[in-house]
UniProtKB/TrEMBL annotation:
Its EC number is 2.5.1.17. This is Corrinoid adenosyltransferase. Pfam families: Cob_adeno_trans. PANTHER family: CORRINOID ADENOSYLTRANSFERASE (PTHR12213), CORRINOID ADENOSYLTRANSFERASE MMAB (PTHR12213:SF0). GO terms for cellular component: cytoplasm. Belongs to the Cob(I)alamin adenosyltransferase family. Its main location: cytoplasm. Residues 7-173 form the Cobalamin adenosyltransferase-like domain. Gene3D superfamilies: Cobalamin adenosyltransferase-like. It is found in: Cytoplasm. It catalyses: 2 cob(II)alamin + reduced [electron-transfer flavoprotein] + 2 ATP = 2 adenosylcob(III)alamin + 2 triphosphate + oxidized [electron-transfer flavoprotein] + 3 H(+); 2 cob(II)yrinate a,c diamide + reduced [electron-transfer flavoprotein] + 2 ATP = 2 adenosylcob(III)yrinate a,c-diamide + 2 triphosphate + oxidized [electron-transfer flavoprotein] + 3 H(+). The lineage of its organism: Bacteria, Pseudomonadati, Pseudomonadota, Alphaproteobacteria, Rhodobacterales. Keywords: ATP-binding, Cobalamin biosynthesis, Cytoplasm, Nucleotide-binding, Transferase.
Amino acid sequence: MVVLSKIYTKTGDAGETALGNGARVAKHSARVNAYGTVDEANATFGLARLHAEGEMDARLAAIQNDLFDLGADLCRPDMEKDTEADYPPLRMSDAQVARLESEIDAMNAALEPLRSFVLPGGSALAAHLHLCRTVTRRAERLAVELATMEMINPAAVKYLNRLSDWCFVASRIANDDGRADVLWVPGANR
């Protein structure tokens, strides 16, 4: 259980922060950028939830929890030492990726195929889901960059990749099952 009794610690005042294994790194390190952007993505999902109801809200809540799991995964380096840890670090799983894939398939079954690219917008929920999608894509790029420097859990990158796809399909659902999508018209304003 996490207990946060004191919110400020002053330990980051010199531009460093602690990772999940206790190591101190610069706040601008690739690892901190990756999990910090996952946190930013999580905040955008919170905004989207302001416009969601029922099953969509429940799915968004599950994603927010997953994103906290993902942040915990990314803030804990030294995957090769997981078996030596006093307690097993929280790692993303292929089951979480598979759940997203299943949800994407179910949502996509209700949609007509696209004949053009979709512009971010339409309903308030759809617009927020597009914001979720783009911040998630940035988190994915940063996680992929981190993976070129250090070992990270491959399921973390897969999850981010599927999540951005999930957001796109969910935005179409939020736009009256795609009927209210705002379509791109190439060269319309020339």
